[in-house]
Amino acid sequence: MQDEGISDLSKVCSRLGDGAGQLVRLARLVDLDGYWLELHCCANIRLTPLRMLARQKGGQHQLDAVLSRLRCKTCGAPPARVWLNETPHRTFNHGPPPGWSVQLIPAPAMAQRA
Ligand SMILES: [Zn+2]
Predict the structure, then answer these.
(1) How many angstroms separate the CA atoms of 35 and 50, rounded?
(2) C-alpha 8 – ligand 1 centre gap (Å)
(3) Closest Cα partner for 83 from 65, 98, 105?
(4) 3 alpha carbon to ligand 1 midpoint, in Å?
(5) Which residues sit with Cβ closer than 5 angstroms to ligand 1, an ion?
(6) CA neighbours within 13 Å on the CB side: how many for 21?
(7) What pTM does this model have?
(8) CA dihedral defined by 18, 22, 9, 71, rounded to 10 degrees?
(9) pLDDT tens-place values along the chain, 114 residues long
């Protein structure tokens, strides 16, 4: 029952891909429970479960607000590229095939407008 919102969001993400970015940014951390943030900066790729972010920052925060405050643990800069992933791995690796992913940074919509 409480999964209704999540499965809707998941459906939208798998259909729209990067086009779902705006919707995902407005979602609360608690609504994204079970998904992963993939952060790229310097030579590092860091995977952060949304469940952990929700526990640290509070599940009622919008992803957008949290994204703007994320910093690379190595260089202190905002991460250059960020994806929301359904599964930990965005590209095929050993194990189960990857799910959908939505690129959040740089935002495709904003790049088009600029
Ligand atoms: Zn860095």
Answers:
(1) 6
(2) 34
(3) 105
(4) 35
(5) 41-42, 72, 74-75
(6) 15
(7) 0.84
(8) 80
(9) 445 556 689 999 999 999 999 999 999 999 999 999 999 999 889 999 999 999 999 999 999 999 999 998 889 999 999 999 999 888 887 777 889 999 999 976 554 544
